Structure formats: C-alpha cells, structure tokens
Amino acid sequence: MASADEKQPVIIVGAGLAGLVAAFELSERKVPVLLIDQENEHNLGGQAFWSLGGIFVVDSTEQRRMGIKDSRELAMRDWMGSARFDREKDDHWPRQWAKAFVDFATDEMENYVKDRGLGFLVNVGWAERGDGTANGHGNSVPRFHITWGTGPEVVRVFAEPVKKAAEKGIVSFKFRHAVDELIVDESGRAVGVRGRILEDDDSPRGIKSSRVEKDKFEIRGSAVIVSSGGIGGNVEAVKAAWPVDRLGPKVPENFVVGVPAHVDGRMIGIAEEAGAHVINRDRMWHYTEGLQNWNPIWPNHGIRVLPAPSSLWLDATGKRLPPFLYPGSDTLATLKYICSTGYDYTWFILDQSIIAREFALSGSEQNPDITGKSLWLLLTRVFGKKGTVPVQNFQKHGADFVVRENLEDLVAGMNELAKARNGPLLNYDDVKEVVQARDDQFNNPYTKDGQAMLVHNARTYWPDKRSRVAPPHRLLDKAHGPLIAVQMNLLTRKTLGGIETNLDSNVMREDGSPFPGLYAAGEVAGFGGGGVHGYSSLEGTFVGGCIFSGRAAGRAIARELLGDEASSGATGSSKFNSRL
C-alpha cells in the first residue's frame, strides 16, 4: 500500500474542534492534511473556543472522588430516556452512535482528553437535572466535567500538536476559503472541493467577517471531511427548520444568537447536493434562558444563563411554569411550553442571594476565573456575595434585568420591558400571589412543592450546597434582597440532526450505502450519525461529540489509506488503538 506521503492530502472543511481532532489523529499517523475554513486564523477551533468546555464523562475519577455512583447502564438509560428515538430508518445510525458514545464516555473519554493535557474542575456539574421521572429525560447524577481553562484549553490541546505537524509539513491551512461544492469523480468518490477565496479580513475571533470574493479555487484530495458546524448562527435557517408540529403553534419571532455568524449551516446543503443523506433536520437544541449580551461580539449576541434551581420561573403572562419545568431541569420540554404560550420570552424572579450563588454564564469569556485558571478568582466566585464580575456587569448593564427593593416596583419594571416586546402586562396582585405561594413552601425543610423538593435534593450534593445552590429562603425576605427580575429570551445554539454517518463518520447516501471518500464530524453530522442525541441533550455531549466523531473520522481515513500502518503513529492507551 502506498505511503501517506505519496497521496494527496485529506481535506478537512471546517477548522473547528471536530476538524482539529480529525487533523490531530491523521497527523499523528503522518497522513497529510489540508484544513480549509472560511474564517481567518483567529477563529481556529470554532465554536468550541467560546464554550465552557463541559464534557460528558461517566464513572470518572472526579465523580468517584465526589462519592457519585455512576455507571454505563445508568448513563445509557438516561441517554435513551432523553433521546426518545422514534424513527425506524432515520434513527438507525443515531441509535448506534448513542451506544458507542456512552461506551466511549465510560471507557475512554477521560484518559483520551487527559492524555492530551486537559484537566477538570474538582466538582462535577449537574446539568439537565431531569423531568422528574426515573426513566425519562435528564442526568440521574452529575456528569458535566468543566475543563480547567474552558473552551480555549480544549482547543489548545488539539491545535498545538496540529500546528507542530504543520511545521513539519504534514498539515497545511487555507483560511478565508469558502467551499461551495464537493467534487465527486466518475466512480462516485469525493475527491475534492471548489469554492471562493474571500478577501483578507483580520477581524478578531467571532466578529462577522467579509464575504467579498477575490478569486476561485479548486483543490483535490484523497478524502474529504466536512466538519463545518450547524445552523445556530443562521436564524432564518433555524426558523425554516422549526418543528411547528412539536414546538408550535408558530415559529418564535425573536431569538438571541448563541454562536458566531459563520455558523451558517451552508455545508449541510452543499453535502446534500453532492449526494449525502441529511436526516432529522427538525431536531434542534435551543436554550430558554438567553440574555442579550450588553457587550456583543457577533450580531444579536446572546449569552445563556446556566441556572441552578431556586429562581421562580414565570411565563410571559405571569403564570408559574408547571412541574417539572424548573431552572436547569428539562430544556426541550420548557421550550415546548414557552412556544405553546404564543410568546418568546419568560421571566425569572430571584434575589441577590440567588443570583450570587446560582447564576453562571455560559461561555469562556464569561468565566475569566476558570478560563484564566485563576484559583483566587475561583475562590471569589465560591465565597463571594455579589456573583462573578460578568454576572455583576449583566446585572448593571443588561437590557433584560430589573432590580428593585420591593415586589410592586419590580413588577412595574417588568411591565416596562414587556411593553417593548408587545407582551402582556403583568398584574401585580397575581404575581404577588404566585411569589407568596412559592415562599410559603420554603418555611420548612419539607414541602409539597416540586421546585422546593428539587432545591433540597440539589443541596444533598455537597458541591452544590457549598457553591452552586443558595440556602432555601423566601424571595420576599429583605435580608436576601434586592429583588431581581430577568426577561429570558430564546437563544439559538445547536443542530441535533444533520448528515447521516456510520460509526466511522463515513457519510451515508440516501440508499443506505457509504459515500466513498466523504466523512462528516461534529455538529454538521448531528455530532455523529445524523442525530446521536435524538430529541434532547444531556449536556457536555457537544464538545464530547466533536471529539468523538472527529476522532472516528480521522482514524477511519487513516485505516483506509494506511491499512496496518495506521497504528504506527497512534498515541495514548485507548483500547480503540488495537483496531488500528
């Protein structure tokens, strides 16, 4: 078999995390790689750079240290209860990817990323706490492992070895190259890409860049990996794919945007035109706790609140959201309820004690303590009474915040924001009754209120008790004031469907046959298979899904090109290496 040096490069379209992981795996085996991206080099790593760097791991060292009893079987039950796969044909590969991902998260993820140099925070986060049923949606135990260094660190540990491979001539980059077409030869194999060279644009990371064309290009390769992300930055594409039958009665009008503008989903359609099978387009993951960024980077920039369970959640009309739609519990079910109201925003009512302890903001730039690896700032977060500096800035400058000393003035401020959205005005007496009914359930350590039960349950996990969940108290207790209201927006984020792939990340055609030479990894492939999450995510599975699917693509192509030689460059102790 010919050596990789004698072959054309593997072309990777999209230099985000999945593309970097694939490039890392290929370059470790001396397979030449060409990374193409429509953005400039400042955007290497894509969306992952902006993330909190949370990774879904099962039965990890950190979990065991916390006394958390987790297992493959429990994680698989949680996954299937959340995914609710119900499509015989389109869920064929997603089901297999789900099992493979949980196996990887149990057996290999921890060692794989730690071998690269990643470290996790000591305490494991508890995201998507569930719908209140044992076999339904949600994580039965904490599994959200936050990277010490957040998204930039996740990007760094894969980008650095890829850059070193570039110094050796194994990897090359072509930034500001927008792919418009996949080249397929007479045998039906993907052999290259065509597109436009965009004018130089040295904008900082995340800033919307120019799309002015200065030339054309055509590049041939030994295989093509599409790893270009989803549609979250393209609101019109989100609206076009919106499943009104499930999340109706109409498409929401207003969103804040959780990802940069270059996350436009173009390559999904381009791959489909070439013959790739695209499935589960209607499955998406959008958050219900979005804030308008007071200091935006990209257009309509939104930031997600990562809430713990104590805030009182009201819909736009002032009604309390029903059980088990509590903060941090069930994103998709909450989104469905909000859409059913006919409005595209909700209200949090909380106080200073809750915001200081329970408001975390998603994004590397919103967590300077963890991103900057500052123990001092981290201790300030844990023991401070004002919240992190980014939270304080939102409280001071954010357009969605109302801060008042009493409930009547708070409701008046909420109504000012409602008027600006042509929303319903809240009746003070009705809101007061909801708040007092909630407060009466916090007078004792036992309760009939589902949210109060959730708060008490959360505080049995000592990291939550110490640093994440406020001591139970009445909102109208002035000792915890002032009162705060936050108008929560819908925030676009992830594509859960996408290009169908087998377990090697090899793209599938509509007839069920593999597409020779064409692979897809990351969000463009629904993070694997065309929809590994089904309808709902357990969180930590987006960064993890990019790693797993990019790894699968890189290793599969190496096996195709090198055969038995593919194992010669493999690193780490993964049992998967035995296949190489």
UniProtKB/TrEMBL annotation:
GO terms for molecular function: oxidoreductase activity, acting on the CH-CH group of donors. SUPFAM superfamilies: FAD/NAD(P)-binding domain. Keywords: Flavoprotein, Oxidoreductase. InterPro entries: FAD-dep_OxRdtase_2_FAD-bd, FAD/NAD-bd_sf, KsdD_DH. It comes from the Eukaryota. Residues 10-543 form the FAD-dependent oxidoreductase 2 FAD-binding domain. NCBIfam families: PRK12834.1. This is FAD-dependent oxidoreductase 2 FAD-binding domain-containing protein. It comes from Fusarium falciforme. The lineage of its organism: Eukaryota, Fungi, Dikarya, Ascomycota, Pezizomycotina.
